[in-house]
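subagent[fold] <- orchestrator: predict structure for attached chain, return tokens only, no commentary.
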Amino acid sequence: MTLTEINPAQMLILKSFASVSNEEELSALMKTLKKFYAQRLENELDRLWTDGSLDQKRLDELQTEHLRTPYRG
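subagent[fold] -> orchestrator:
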């Protein structure tokens, strides 16, 4: 992948991490980012459930599905 330009969101993240001065601040920032992405994921799952794209039957199918890429040796 070739990066040609940093978008505003990437710049904000870089500036945020640049201002971190210790492990405690880093941990707090990482926790905030994880919470943000967890909320986005939850919202998308709620949307899929509401529109019928995701249901209990599909969840049961996914539970037994093997999605990992096989190792090449």
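orchestrator: received. Logging for downstream: The mean pLDDT is 91. The radius of gyration is 18 Å.
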